[in-house]
Amino acid sequence: MYHKTEAIVLRTVDFSETSLIVTFFSRNFGKIHTLAKGGRRLKGPFESALDLMAQTFVTFIPKRGGALDLLTEAKLHRRFCPEERNFSGMYAGYYVIELLENTTVEGNPQPELYDEAAETLKLLADGVRVMPCLMRFEWRLLQEIGMFPSLEACVQCGGKMPENPGRTMTFTPIDGGVICSECRVGKPHLMVISAELASTVIKMAELPAPLWNSVSLPVLRQMRQLLNHYISHLLGKRPKMFDYFKTMAERDKDVQNNTD
């Protein structure tokens, strides 16, 4: 039985002199691992459809028992190709696929997340401001995988946080949200965030990336720091592309990132 779907290329690994193992994030089947016979040939059957971050129409035969699915056809839909000097957009694209590879699983279709990823890669290639676009995708990804933090009520006791725009709140990456003064006693790895940051994330996560340009610089800086800590905790490791965040920020001169 043949399966067809749209997919984004996440990773390629040499399998033999002529073949590749290709990992896709697909719209209809979630993450899939395929064997692309002839994929390493210069004039192979798949051509540039297997380039990293390419959006591709694929046909494959699913296998059982842990065997690789067999890729039979791949047709390029959209290549991820930022302008020559847009290094920050390129690095950001690598970060998108790093997140997808580390947060998605096989056999779990997430079409909304697929659409968000495809649109984000297109925007990055088109040269939008990198960090607002990237942070919006991170929040949308957290929503889709069920790990969006609690920002309105204490994650421990459920008590609603006071509504005071000038206040600060305490965030715990371990528990995944803000925590009240009573519940935070003895908790490790706490962060102080502003109420403005929490309300901005709640409002903006659903809005198109260009509207993020209106977010104030202090909030963007806090947001980057919060995402860095929270995503590192969720993955159990520091994403490789964090090392390039300062380079990415060169294009967004007004967004200075804290990657500690």
Write up what this structure looks like.
The chain is of the alpha+beta class and 260 residues long. It has a domain at 1-79: OB fold (Dihydrolipoamide Acetyltransferase, E2P), CATH 2.40.50. It has six helices and eight strands; from the N terminus they run E-E-E-E-E-H-H-H-E-E-E-H-H-H. It has helices spanning 87-103, 111-126, 130-144, 195-204, 217-235, 245-249; strands spanning 3-14, 20-26, 30-36, 55-61, 69-78, 168-172, 177-179, 191-194. The strands form two sheets. It has a five-stranded mixed beta barrel with strand order 1-2-3-5-4. It has a three-stranded antiparallel beta sheet with strand order 7-6-8. A hairpin with a 4-residue loop joins strand 6 and strand 7. The longest helix is centred in the C-terminal third of the chain and has 19 residues, at 217-235. It is elongated, with a radius of gyration of 20 Å.
Write the topology of this structure:
Blueprint: E1 3-14, E2 20-26, E3 30-36, E4 55-61, E5 69-78, H1 87-103, H2 111-126, H3 130-144, E6 168-172, E7 177-179, E8 191-194, H4 195-204, H5 217-235, H6 245-249
Parallel strand pairs: 3-5
Antiparallel strand pairs: 1-2, 1-4, 2-3, 4-5, 6-7, 6-8
Q: How many DSSP-defined strands?
A: 8
What is the highest CATH level, the class of one domain? Answer: Mainly Beta
CATH architecture of one domain: Beta Barrel
Oligomer: single chain
What overall form do the CA principal axes indicate? elongated
Largest sheet data: 5 strands, mixed, barrel
Q: Beta fraction of the residues?
A: 15-25%
Rounded to an integer in angstroms, the radius of gyration calculated over CA atoms is 20 Å
CATH superfamily of one domain: Nucleic acid-binding proteins
What fold name goes in the CATH topology slot of one domain?
OB fold (Dihydrolipoamide Acetyltransferase, E2P)
**Low-confidence residue ranges:** 254-260
Spatially, the strands of the biggest sheet line up as: 1-2-3-5-4
Helix content: 25-40%
